[in-house]
Design brief:
mainly alpha, 5 helices, 8% strand, 103 residues
Length: 103
């Protein structure tokens, strides 16, 4: 959830969780499917590329997939987020079947 005009910048952020800390209930946690997890184990440097690809998704794209509540609160559900991000991630990964690699 986020607001476009919060004064803190973007309404949505992607945080690369190196600590493996548990996220609170206002965050969506992304876990790779097994095929993508295997690619990331083989080439761990791609993890940062995936994170950067997520961060480059425009605010307009993310807000366009979700819904808006009163007062300008934008909300994305996991499936809506998936609609916005799969193509961006696939661009930074080695050639594989796109069905195997979607988060």
């Amino acid at each position: 959830m986020g607001r476009q005009d919060s004064g803190r910048g973007r309404p949505f952020r992607f945080i690369l969780n190196h600590s493996r800390a548990t996220a609170t209930n206002v965050y969506l946690i992304l876990y790779p499917k097994p095929a993508l997890a295997k690619v990331l184990l083989e080439k761990p440097e791609l993890l940062k590329e995936v994170w950067l690809a997520l961060d480059r998704i425009s605010d307009e794209t993310l807000m366009g997939e979700g819904r808006v509540y009163g007062g300008g609160l934008h909300k994305l559900e996991p499936r809506e987020l998936g609609n916005a991000l799969a193509e961006k991630i696939l661009k930074v990964l080695p050639e594989r079947s796109s069905n195997d690699l979607v988060i």
